[in-house]
Amino acid sequence: MPNIRARLLAVLVVLCGLCGFLTAAGTPAAGAAALPDSLPFDGTALTVANGRFVDGHGREAVLRGYNVSGETKLDENKGLPFASVADARKSATALRALGGGNSARFLLSWAYAEPVRGQIDTAYLAAATDQIRAFLDAGVRVHPDFHQDLYSRYLFNSGSWYTGDGAPKWAVELGGYPRESCGICFFWGQNITQNGAVKAAQYDFWHNAHGLQDSFLTMAERTMTYIRQHLTAEQFAGVLGFDPYNEPYAGTYDSGQTSRTWERDLLWPFYVRFRARMDAAGWQDKPALVEPNLFWNANITSQRQEGGLLDAGTLGSRYVLSTHFYDQKAISAILMPGKAADGQYVTDFGALRDRVSAAGTAALVSEFGHPLSGLVSDKAPTVLKAMYQALDSRVKGASWWTTPAASGPVLSGAQWQWDIYHGRHHELMNGNPDKVLTAGDAWNDEDLSAVRLDDNGTVTLRQDARLLDRIYPSATSGTALAFTYEDRSRDGSTTLTWNPVPAALPNVAALVGSGQYGLLVWRSGTGTAPTELHLPASFPTSTTTVVSDLGTAHGPPAYTPTTPIATAPEPGGTGSRRLLLTTTGQGTVHYALITNGATAPSATLLAAARTELASWVGQKFA
């Protein structure tokens, strides 16, 4: 992930800105009950088909959530995201109810899973699995990630400006690496390409020096086996897959090697080996969430390197392309002096859509975000709005109503990050008792957590709820053709409206008014389970209006199988809610506008808005 040392940013453009004991405690009974608030079509495992995530009813699934959590990169909780299962439950409930998330990228640490070579710390795995279970039991799907940044904290000196995470101490000691030094570095990510110790250690891992990669794969298989064996079948269905390695980079290229040939000859074979370990551990029906060379989609041209697993062939259902995206220009404070605007990232995310289409698989933007303090934090409201906009559609707001059919698939994503301990850490940086970090994320000056605990121990958002808690199509019965959401989030006192309803639809515009709205257009499939959209807390039933070819509803009723427009709680008992749209027939184009802008719309206005939308859909999706 990217970071900023605010006092020096104005004088330097980043050279590299992305980062980018046996126990069965807590083992559940085999026949655990269904999640609270579940409905008959809930709880199936997700797979990959036709370039999308799909559930057991054939519905296209979209995952939205957060990374849980950067605390794993610290030593204070010994490589766990939370100090206790109670904190994990509190965080999971808030992630669902406040952040609108239905998924979490759950960070794990090789250093704590295998502190001694060949010896797996099952106490660590038990604690991690208990915390994973807390999210699964809140209805949050989980995809674990073996996280690393700068290879390992054990490469860094006690007085260093920077630190890392990932590999255990014994792995570093095997290498005999030079004393770490980044020279004149003002971003922690510069260590990736400038710190000789980091580069040498990464090189050794990818070349399996000292059998390092073999040890990692054995540890990973035992970790995955443990997690599967200590979850019920229903809980394990909520585990999406596994991210083998965070932000891979060569360290140093061999003579004549390029970023593309490195991916082909070293990175992809590693993923094939990891995939085999997933199969051996009983994860054969879940995808490996594989990341390309971390610089493949850098938005600073001088830093971009050819990649994207271009030579891996068709990835199909057993691999998902997982990638990160940070606006390095915005973070530099120099290359993007203003703020993000409508459509800022639709080209970047459009390139991802094109790449996964060519690879025949689904996409997951497993990290994105922006600093929330420091010199460039004023850009955060617009940068994040533009990133969510690009996840929703490849068409910018000003053009969406004109060319909605070009939207492309709705992308899944996980914002960095969700750390309830933000500003309350007690981390001895690199083990140094004279460098106790408490502020921000307590890691390399980062401050990106969307949440914190207030003085009463309550989880509180640090960002605009209108930005984070969003309408999105969590399950589409058929194929999503186009989707947009105007969140009306704020940049200070300014309301950001990038996708106003056009004047050509006056009744729709009158219905929406100054409120938020989402619009989904989809083609029905063969399944009978309804289409679902997450309803933010800003959409209470009493002020929610739906206009659809299925009918109109102000204050939609509770769900029944024969109610075409209805609401229901989301599974997990967190209080979050969903809109359920039930269709009949196959191959029909449907639409649904959801808004909270109308207090008491008349039947006449609802009918007129429906007529306008029907005509618009007929023109744009004929």
TrEMBL record:
<keyword id="KW-0732">Signal</keyword>
<dbReference type="InterPro" id="IPR052066">
    <property type="entry name" value="Glycosphingolipid_Hydrolases"/>
</dbReference>
<dbReference type="GO" id="GO:0008422">
    <property type="term" value="F:beta-glucosidase activity"/>
</dbReference>
<dbReference type="InterPro" id="IPR017853">
    <property type="entry name" value="GH"/>
</dbReference>
<protein>
    <submittedName>
        <fullName>Cellulase family glycosylhydrolase</fullName>
    </submittedName>
</protein>
<feature type="signal peptide">
    <location>
        <begin position="1"/>
        <end position="24"/>
    </location>
</feature>
